[in-house]
Design brief:
The complex is a heterodimer of chains A (323) and B (338). Helix content of chain A is 51%, strand content 21%. Chain A is built from nine helices and ten strands. The longest helix of chain A is centred in the last third of the chain and has 71 residues. With 338 residues, chain B is an alpha+beta fold. Chain B contains nine helices and twelve strands. The chains are: A alpha+beta (323), B alpha+beta (338). Strand 10 of chain A pairs parallel with strand 12 of chain B, so a sheet runs across the interface.
């Protein structure tokens, strides 16, 4: 008897628990729920987090994420308008804006991902194909800062004016893709070009170009060094000449001044008695010029020998030179 | 364990416990006790949580966010009614791009592979290619947004950082990237990333973005090094020229100075000698004027008597005698005393 009571009681308890479990459901901060009754959506989506109630068993809670969800594109090989082949990787973030519509059109996230692949990849391809590579790479027309005077080694292609730039191109792709996705209950919240790279064959060419650019820069540095050092050497030569010639001029001036002064002094002294000067100077010259290799040929008529033959001869002084 | 102050051997304790269990076994009270104990422990275990000093905890009740708890011990409704998610808000977090730190130590070791290479390879504004490695340091400023706004917040953050960095690098030349532009690029990329965080409302505050190794691609590296070498060569050529200049110019100046000084000396010498000579002449002349005849004769004869002995050969002839004259060898011995 008591066993049967226990069995019925237990059964009731299970039924109550199952009913309660199917009546109450929680919605977390990250979730939104669409209630369906026998597969048909009922009312608006529930976005308020907390404990909620529904009809047990007949109604079903379909949970969707409320957060921004990921969509990461594969790298696509795309041609630009100027026929450059590049790898482009984009990513986007989206959210389920209308869970009911989303539920009806796509059922689940997997469906959404494949639809987004189609839409975003297609729009990316179209937009990239309509613009030059430089538009995808650069954002603005800012001029590059010059570190080592390399301005004219740049490719003409890289110097081209940017009309839109990466930012606007990204916006363009986002805008185009955003036109379609609301039909699926999706809102595209952001899209970014994550990576742009050359395809391998183009990259090899770019490397070659970079190498030749650097070679040109290196050559310029080298010749600049030679030029500057020649300039310095020239300056040195010039200054040497200046220094030397100035020194010559100064020494000549100074020596001339000395000579002039000395000449003046001599002149004013010797002018007192020119004859005496000539006489003294002649005497000095005799002393200086006659040595033991000299021959003296003297006539007895000379004044010196006046007394040689007769002591009484009258001389110019009238007296014997002997003291 | 120490019941009543006495100490038990472990075996004895087990024995006593076993006896106590045996007494209870089979009774209804025992079952109830076990059930109560299990419920009690489960309740206690799921009502208690502890928050570490660098974290905060976000509590949700039936999935709805109700409160944030700061570090320390806390209680909550048990059995999944309230759930706790901990977020390290105080910790400075870091993401690495282009490399991974395998082990951070005094000498950290890094790893690079195909995946990180793809992260670092990018196009520059002059359509060249460079590899850029960088890190982003950030904090979780708003744990609510961090947890509930985006599904894969960390991975999304990485993508945002890559997009920002490539946008900025795409607007700079490779030369800027490698030399003068590094700081500006890092600052601009940080700004872009912060703006994206604001747009995504992901609760992350970017604190620092630091460029690490920035290199030209491996194949191109040697030619970049060649440029550096050329710069060195240029500097060396210029320095050498200046060295020559600095060596020769001061020497030439010194030599010039020397010549000028010597000329000064010459001039002074000339003038002094002239003055001396003049003085001497004047003095002589003054005395000479007093007795010109005799002085003149004296000077003449004095000179001759000095000169004649010095001459090696002397030849005296008489004009009145025709032909060669007898010679008077007035040798050095035959002095004529004045």
């Amino acid at each position: 008897m008591s066993g049967r009571v226990l069995l019925v009681g237990g059964g009731l308890l299970v039924v109550v628990a199952l009913t309660l479990g199917s009546t109450f459901f929680t919605v977390s901060e990250t979730e939104q729920v669409v209630i369906t009754q026998f597969g048909e959506p009922i009312g608006q989506a529930i976005t308020r987090p907390g404990l909620h109630v529904k009809l047990p068993f007949a109604q079903e809670a379909n949970v969707f994420d409320k957060r921004w969800l990921e969509w990461n594109g594969n790298a696509n090989q795309l041609p630009t308008r100027d026929k450059k082949y590049i790898w482009v990787e984009t990513y986007a973030r989206w959210r389920i804006a209308d869970p009911l519509l989303f539920f009806q059109r796509l059922r689940d996230e997997r469906g959404a991902q494949s639809r987004l692949d189609d839409i975003i990849d297609g729009d990316t391809r179209n937009v990239i194909a309509n613009h030059n590579l430089i538009e995808v790479v650069r954002t603005s027309n800012r001029s590059f800062e010059r570190a080592e005077e390399v301005e004219d080694v740049m490719e003409a292609e890289a110097m081209r004016q940017v009309e839109l730039g990466r930012d606007k191109i990204t916006r363009l792709i986002l805008e185009r893709a955003s036109r379609v996705v609301p039909d699926y209950g999706i809102e595209l919240v952001d899209l970014q070009i994550q990576r742009v790279n050359y395809i391998e064959s183009v990259q090899a060419k770019v490397f070659d170009r970079m190498i030749s650019e650097r070679k040109r820069i290196a050559d310029r540095h080298r010749s600049e060094g030679q030029g500057k050092s020649a300039e310095i050497r020239g300056k040195k030569e010039r200054e040497l000449k200046v220094i030397e010639s100035e020194a010559y001029r100064k020494t000549q001036e100074i020596m001339g001044r000395g000579d002039a002064e000395a000449t003046g002094i001599y002149a004013s002294a010797y002018n007192r008695d020119r004859e005496l000067y000539r006489f003294l100077r002649t005497m000095e010259t005799y002393r200086a010029t006659i040595d033991k290799d000299s021959w003296l040929v003297l006539s007895t008529d000379a004044d010196l020998f006046r007394y040689l033959q007769s002591p009484g001869a009258a001389g110019p002084s009238g007296r014997s030179p002997k003291r | 364990m120490t019941n009543g102050g006495g100490s038990f051997e472990p075996e004895e304790f087990v024995r006593i416990a076993r006896e106590a269990l045996a007494r209870l076994r089979g009774s209804r009270r025992f079952l109830l006790l076990i059930g109560a104990a299990v419920i009690f422990i489960a309740t206690l275990g799921s009502s208690y949580y502890q928050v570490e000093p660098d974290e905060v905890a976000l509590v949700t009740r039936f999935g709805r966010f109700v409160r944030t708890s700061n570090p320390g011990p806390h209680g909550k409704f048990p059995f999944g009614v309230e759930q706790v998610q901990k977020v390290p808000v105080q910790r400075q977090l870091k993401q690495e791009f282009g490399f991974r730190t395998v082990r951070a130590d005094i000498q950290s070791s890094f790893r690079k592979d195909e995946k990180t290479a793809a992260e670092s390879l990018m196009l520059t504004g002059d359509l060249n290619v460079a590899t850029v490695e960088w890190i982003v340091q950030y904090k979780i400023a708003d744990p609510y947004k961090y947890l509930f706004k985006l599904r894969d917040v960390e991975e999304t953050f990485r993508l945002m950082a890559e997009a920002s960095m490539r946008t900025v690098v795409g607007d700079h030349s490779v030369t800027e990237l490698l030399t003068v532009g590094r700081e500006a690029i890092a600052a601009k990329a940080k700004e872009l990333l912060s703006n994206l965080c604001k747009l995504y409302d992901n609760g992350i505050a970017v604190q620092q973005l630091v460029l690490q190794d920035v290199d030209p691609p491996e194949l191109v590296k040697p030619s970049f090094n060649a440029v550096n070498q050329a710069i060195q060569e240029r500097e060396r050529a210029i320095n050498e020229a200046w060295a020559e200049y600095n060596q020769e110019i001061p020497r030439a100046r010194g030599l010039a100075e020397q010549k000028v000084e010597a000329a000064e000396g010459y001039a002074v010498d000339r003038v002094n000698r002239a003055k001396g000579d003049a003085q001497r002449f004047v003095a002589l002349e003054e005395q000479y004027r007093k007795a010109p005849e005799v002085t003149r004769t004296r000077l003449y004869l004095e000179t001759l008597s000095a000169v004649l002995p010095a001459a090696g050969k002397k030849l005296i002839f008489d004009e009145k005698a025709k032909g060669i004259l007898p010679m008077f060898p007035l040798g050095p011995q035959a002095e004529v005393k004045p």
